[in-house]
Amino acid sequence: MNAPTRILDTMTELHRFLFCSAHAGHGQWLSAALRDEGVVLQEAGRPAQLQQRIGDLDPQVVLLDFSGEPSGHADDTADGSFAGAIELAQMLKRVAPKLPLVAVGSMVRADGMKAAIRAGVHDFIDMHSTHEEALDVIRRVIDQTPPPSAVAPQRHGRFVVLLGARIGVGCSTLAAHLSQLGQEMVVGAHPEKATRAAKAPANKDDKFDASLLGHVALLDLGLPSGDGLLYLNTQSQFSFAEAVQNLRRFDETLVHTAVSHTPSGLAVLPLPLDLGDMRSVAAADALALTDRLRAFFDLIVADLGGFSNPAFVASLVRAADEVWLVVDQSVGAIVSLASMLRDLEEKSVERHHLQLVLNRYDPRYGMAADQIAKRFEIPLLATLPDRPLAMLSATNQGKLILDTARSDPYVRALQPLVERLLSAQHAGAAAQRHSSGWLGRFMGKH
């Protein structure tokens, strides 16, 4: 990995590039080319429709298709493609004059190049060039783009995705404990808030101190649905799907009033009661919501254990600062892990972006942790001990093992993981405060 990539890996803000095109192949090429710089969201539609989508997604750069190649639509022609791209450019210059526009096409198509020049784009990406050359274009455009206004909201939270190799490996249990422990550690770093947290009402129907908010959020999206809420002994009337539907008005007021919280202040966004509602949630919209959440939380933990939509999972994985693959030592989990890795690779997710967490680990069960990590060429992040009696006892009391046995080996194994996540978030925030120019846009704000 080269030095620029190492620098990018420490940044907490993900760039979003909106590619306006119906050509799926071009979108796939751009996604692969710009992977190290951000995520490509592809939309096809007329200017009026795309204006709404641009407002929702808030991209850093808009890419316009000037290739002249047919996308497979019956009414798609080269001239029509150029006309549509020119119309989009003109619309964007009216409604978002500061938004950088980059043409995508081929240097050998003189008509496409001329059309792009007439449209007044800021730069051009040749799809016959290398991925590195495409990255250079995007980085040059970002470098030349003025930083956002000081009053504009800036994302700062660290986003961690947990992927269970299969249902039943303990991914939701880990997500609940990780997020709750993170919330307690952040609140505990402020003595006055720790005192209020200790006095927080035990009754889930009572109100809690709103000053405890804004630290950690759990996206309870794993299957079976609602396990995170169950382990945290809380309820929610506001789901992830509803949050996406309210993306344009998702602000601090909505976070405080609509999103469910535990007494300690941990925010929880679960799946909707009717899982069919998730069919209306586009991967790009889910990504936009997680990006928005960074403005309100220091740490966002997403439990995607058992989630079956590969495109949805891959989009959040690419957006995450860290991705933990949760697996145990069972044959079924190991086989499922191999299948999951194939699916992720098909979605252009590279293995160096992943880390392995071996749950319910006991050397007596068979294959050692380092053997599993070596077999799949994934860095081993941690092993978590098998504690079935302690876990079941806590769950039957409607509590986490954090509450019933604070010194349990499972909790002790989690503590350094949470400390590392919070340290990384604070390091990114400190770097942002001392940065200047375009680099500051990558860094989180504490």
Automatic annotation (TrEMBL):
Keyword Ribonucleoprotein: no
Lineage: Bacteria, Pseudomonadati, Pseudomonadota, Betaproteobacteria, Burkholderiales
Keyword field contains Phosphoprotein: yes
Keywords attached to this entry: Phosphoprotein
Residues the record lists as 4-aspartylphosphate modifications: D65
GO-annotated molecular function: ATP binding; ATP hydrolysis activity
Name of this protein: Flp pilus assembly ATPase
PROSITE patterns for the chain: RESPONSE_REGULATORY
Coiled-coil region: none
Organism the protein comes from: Pandoraea eparura
